[in-house]
Amino acid sequence: MPSVVVVRTESVQYKVQKDLFGFPMFRVQESLAGEGSGVIIDERGYVLTSWHVLEGAREIEVVLSNGEKKSAKIVGHDRATDLAMLKIKAPGDGFPVVEFGDSDAVRVGEVAIAIGSPFSLQSSVTVGHVSQKGRRVEILPYEDFIQTDAAINEGNSGGPLINADGRLIGINAAIKTDAVERGVGIAFAIPSNLAMVIESR
């Protein structure tokens, strides 16, 4: 839990206003706020999260488990796997770090625990199981998802999926749902072993 953070972003969207004849008059700047989750993987303040949480962000802030707010910057990303790395700007090397597990050793049916900030509810924990491994659902160029029935909702993206020993086995990435129904019990996480390979590049 101490290694899990809230990731808050601010981006700018421009809309073109038109006159009665359809000709553009001026651009309207609109600030958009976004929120996701992340997990600290290095005591120097490196945070692993999802790229779609950060894409287009102008400002990024992480909220630690104790409520402290820190500015952060993007230091790397990989679109093919939807992974990204943040660096907390504050000096220091004492940030609490998650312990990595071996996602290849994960078995279907074992306990899976998701931690994140769904709907801005910080440090929310949901428990389920590993439903399947090696899933491909055609949302990313490269997929090898862990499927889980642990409840994952908006704001969980980028947060950790851990095993019963508290070790990271995945980064929560997506849910299977539609415009009306949510929380249908099908969610997907990027395996921790894949994240380690991407992070080390």
Short description:
The protein has 201 residues and is mainly β.
- Rg for CA atoms: 18 Å
The CATH architecture of the largest domain is: Beta Barrel
Q: How many strand segments?
A: 12
> Biggest sheet: strands side by side, in what order?
1-2-3-6-5-4
Element string (H = helix, E = strand):
EEEHEEEEEEEEEH
Summarize model confidence as the mean pLDDT: 87
In CATH terms, the superfamily of the largest domain is Trypsin-like serine proteases
Question: Strand count, sense and closure of the main sheet?
Answer: 6 strands, antiparallel, barrel
Structural class: mainly beta
Q: Just give the CATH class of the largest domain.
A: Mainly Beta
Overall 3D shape: globular
Strand content: over 45%
Helix percentage range? under 10%
In total, the number of domains comes to: 2
Instruction: Find the CATH topology of the largest domain.
Output: Thrombin, subunit H
Distance between the termini: 27 Å
Low-confidence stretches: none
Summed up, the helix count is: 2
